[in-house]
Amino acid sequence: MNFTILNKKISLKFILISVILTNIITYYFITNEEKLKSDKTIATLHSELNNSSPSSCSYKVKRLAGFNYINPILFVDNECESDKLNTIKQSVSSLIDNYKKDGIINSASLYIKEFNENGWTGINTDEKYFPGSLMKIPMLFTFLKEEEENPGYLNKEIAFTKAFNSVKKTQYKSKSITLGQKYSIRELLNYMIVYSDNDATSLLYAQMNLNKYKKVFTDLGLQAPDLDSLNHTMTAREVSYFMRVLFNAAYLNDINSEFATVLLQKCNFKEGIVSRLPNTVKVAHKYGESGNQIEQELNETAIVYLENNPYVITVMTKGRDYKLLPQVMSEISRIVYQNMVNN
C-alpha cells in the first residue's frame, strides 16, 4: 500500500473529525450561552413584574339605560384622584382646617372635575348635605325632557292664583313672580333658576310629572328622593353629576343642554363661587341653602368655562351662620381657579 496516500486519507479523516467536534463544541457553548441569556431575561421579566406595582385605577362608565339598541355614555369616572390636582387638594384642605379652628364652619366638602383630562379630586366627598335649591336643577331637567317629548310644552301658561305657604325663610331672596299673573313654564323656569324663586318653583312642582323627576336621579345612578320627606341628602360628587351631563350634553339634547347652561349662567347669586373670579369668565351655577338654628348649610355647584381648561366645582358647607359661609365658598373657588389657570 502507498503510505503517502494512506497518510493523506488519515489526515483528511482527522481534519473532518476535528471540524465536526469543533462544531459540536461550539454549538454546545453557544446554545448554553443563549439559554443562559434567555433564562436571565425571563428571570428579569419575572422580577420586574413581581416588583412593579400594577395600576389599581380603573374607569367606571355610566350609561343611560332604557333603549333597545343604543347605550349612551353619560360620563366616565377614573377611580383614582388626579395627581395634577393634588396641590389644590392640599391648599383647600388647609383652608378648611383653618376655618374650622376659627369656628366659621363645622365642615366643608369639595369636588372638582376637569373636562379636558377627565381628572378629579375631592375633599370629604362622602359627607352628606341637604341640597336645598340645588334640587331645582333636576326639576329643570324634568321640564326640558318634557319639552323634548312634547315640543312647545314650555310655552304652556300657568296662572299664579294662590300664594304658597313656605315654612322656610330664605336668606338670599330676590325677584319673585306676582300673584294674579300668568306665566309660561319657560318664564317660571327662569324665575326658579335665575332668582331661585320658591313661588315659581312651587307652581312648577304642582305641574311636574313626579315620576319623571325621580327618573332624572335614577338615570344618573343617584338615589331618587322621597317626595314625602324633607330629609333627602346628597354629596358634593353626586350634585356634580347634574353639571357634568349638562356640559357633555349627555342627558338632554344639544338645544336644551345649551338652554339650561345659559339659564344657569344668569343665576344672580354672586357671593359664593363666582365672587372672586374674573368677570370675563363665564360660570353656569346654582346655589342652595338649608339647615336650622343649630346648623346651617350653604352649597353651590358650577361649571367654570375657563379657556382651554373648563371644570366643574361643587362646594358644600355647614356652619352656624349663613353670613359667614359665602366667604368660605369664595376662597375655595379662588384657590381652585388660580391653580386651574396654571395647570
Characterise the protein shown here.
- With 343 residues, this protein is α+β, with helices and mostly antiparallel strands.
- It has helices spanning 3-51, 86-101, 136-149, 185-194, 198-207, 210-219, 236-248, 254-265, 325-342; strands at residues 59-63, 73-78, 107-114, 120-123, 157-159, 182-184, 283-291, 296-304, 311-319.
- It is built from 9 helices and 9 strands.
- The strands form 3 sheets. Strands 4-3-9-8-7 form a 5-stranded antiparallel sheet, with helices on both faces.
- Helix 3 packs antiparallel against helix 4.
- Residues 1-10, 12-17 and 23-54 have low confidence and may be disordered.
Short structural description:
With 343 residues, the chain is an alpha+beta fold. It has helices spanning 3-51, 86-101, 136-149, 185-194, 198-207, 210-219, 236-248, 254-265, 325-342; strands at residues 59-63, 73-78, 107-114, 120-123, 157-159, 182-184, 283-291, 296-304, 311-319.
Strand content: 15-25%
Order of helices and strands: HEEHEEHEEHHHHHEEEH
Our Rg estimate from Cα atoms comes to 33 Å
- Assembly level: single chain
Largest sheet: 5 strands, antiparallel
Query: Percent of residues in helical segments?
Result: 40-55%
The count of DSSP E runs of length 2 or more, i.e. the number of strands, is: 9
Instruction: Describe the strand arrangement of the main beta sheet, using strand numbers.
Output: 4-3-9-8-7
Mean of all residue-level pLDDT scores: 86
Shape: globular
Give the structural class: alpha+beta
Any low-confidence stretches, pLDDT <50, length ≥5?
1-10, 12-17, 23-54
Distance between the termini: 97 Å
Number of helices: 9
